[in-house]
Please model this.
Amino acid sequence: MIVLPEGVRGVCHGEAAPPRPGLILDRDGVVVVEVNYLSRPDDVALERGAVDLLKACAARGVPVGVATNQSGIDRGYFGWAEYDAVAARLDALLAEHGVAPLTTAACAYHPKHTPDWSPQHDHWRKPGPGLCLWLAEVLGLDLARSWLVGDKASDLKAARAAGMAGALHVLTGHGIEERTKALDVATDTFPVLTADNLADVVGMMDRLFPA
Ligand SMILES: [Mg+2]
Model:
């Protein structure tokens, strides 16, 4: 079992099942509107298409996890209490639309702000695979058939490092300035698909998760 070190938080709302294809989403700039170092519940706003995508996944039995770098914590901008308040607000907004709480893994680390930086920190902070691997364990994901959606190249690199099927790059959040770098993450065995936002991803479900 993967043990979460200090500075990494994981809250699972799912249950163990035989490995199956799933979707891992970045949070800021993908599920919620980017506001750089989001720490106030009042600033939480759902990105376009988030509810529709989460409902589409639920309808198909596709488990969803969220992997989010939260270096604002180790930078000292806010603490886990503020992180938890934001997470609760996000879950409450989703509940208003009939969507279940999101199983989420968050990493507080930053190479310039976390003391005694080590390979373990690199493992957990995206572009490392740690958050995705933990989500795969708790949600029972078959990573080789699972996809990630992110707005930054580092999100996509984390998916690649975790052995995922591929990734989708969206233009919300930091997506516009990251598009070129994101496309460069693709390899012969790791496709990078493009979409404008999560609303577009809804229309790609058949391709991502063939029956
Ligand atoms: Mg992001």
Strands lie at 8-11, 23-25, 64-69, 103-107, 147-150, 166-169, 192-194. The two ends are 30 Å apart (CA to CA). The longest helix spans residues 80-96.
